[in-house]
Amino acid sequence: MTRLMIGAVIGAGVLAAVPAIAIAGNVLVDHGRGPTVVHDVAYAGVRTQVHSWARDGGTDVRLMVRGLPANRPFGAHVHVTPCGTDPLASGGHYQHGTTGTLAEREVWLDFTTDEEGNGVGSTHISWLIAAGTAGSVVIHANPTNTTTGAAGPRQVCTNVPFGE
Ligand SMILES: [Cu+2]
Q1: How many distinct structural domains can be found in the chain?
Q2: 78 and 106 Cβ atoms separated by less than 8 Å
Q3: Does some domain include residue 64?
Q4: What are 24-36's pLDDT values in tens digits?
Q5: 121 Cα: distance to centroid of ligand 1 (angstroms)
Q6: 10 to 4, 5, 13, 37, 45: CA distances (angstroms)
Q7: Gap from CA of 77 to ligand 1 centroid (Å)
Q8: 164 in a domain, yes or no?
Q9: 144 C-alpha vs ligand 1 centroid, how far in Å?
Q10: Does position 56 have pLDDT exceeding 80, yes or no?
Q11: pLDDT tens string 57-99
Q12: Alpha-carbon distance 142 to 60, whole Å?
């Protein structure tokens, strides 16, 4: 019982710290706090936050998650459209241009949860995400296949107003 309570407090502290850092940097921040939709009832207790901000001509994107199964890898990506009750409502993966590998053109936020079921996935991409071209971050059941980009069933979806 005590261990669970400590974990909750630490998790809340981590989540609260990030907006302050982003604001201190005086840059645009796109917030997504969720999840917006949970596609699998086993993940009903999951909590997410997404932050995205411009840096060095590109974009930093960070996904923070609490309440997932412990010590497990998950795939996560920026998707094209907002979440819906249909898992496919979030559309395909956001892609920048048509050249290069999927890892170079898409925004992957894979992470592995710690012993408390918390995880952070982050990346830096060298471009800006235009308003209206990306609407959500989806957490999948499996790590991303680096060849196909597939990551299994869509479990948790969070709306993020990228570029707006
Ligand atoms: Cu995805």
Answers
A1: 1
A2: yes
A3: yes
A4: 344 567 788 999 9
A5: 13
A6: 10, 9, 5, 25, 17
A7: 4
A8: no
A9: 8
A10: yes
A11: 999 999 999 999 999 999 999 999 999 999 999 999 999 999 9
A12: 23
| Those residues with Cβ within 8 angstroms of residue 99's Cβ, 6 or more apart along the chain or in another chain | 105
Distance 93 CA to ligand 1 centre (A): 6
Question: Which range among 19-23, 67-71, 151-155 shows the weakest confidence by mean pLDDT?
Answer: 19-23
* Cα distance from N-terminal residue to C-terminal residue, the chain: 42
In this structure, is residue 132 part of a structural domain?
yes
| CB contact at 8 A, 61 and 49 | no
Q: How far is the CA of 12 from the centre of ligand 1 (A)?
A: 26
- Gap from CA of 145 to ligand 1 centroid (Å): 11
State the distance from the centre of ligand 1 to the C-alpha of 69, rounded, in angstroms: 19
CA–centroid distance, residue 117 to ligand 1 (Å) = 20
Identify whether 131 is part of a domain.
yes
Cα of 16 vs centre of ligand 1, distance in Å, is 26
Q: How far is the CA of 151 from the centre of ligand 1 (A)?
A: 7
CA–centroid distance, 8 to ligand 1, in Å, is: 27
Q: Amino acid identity of 60?
A: D
Q: Which domain holds residue 13?
A: 2-159
CATH number of the CATH domain containing 31: 2.60.40.200
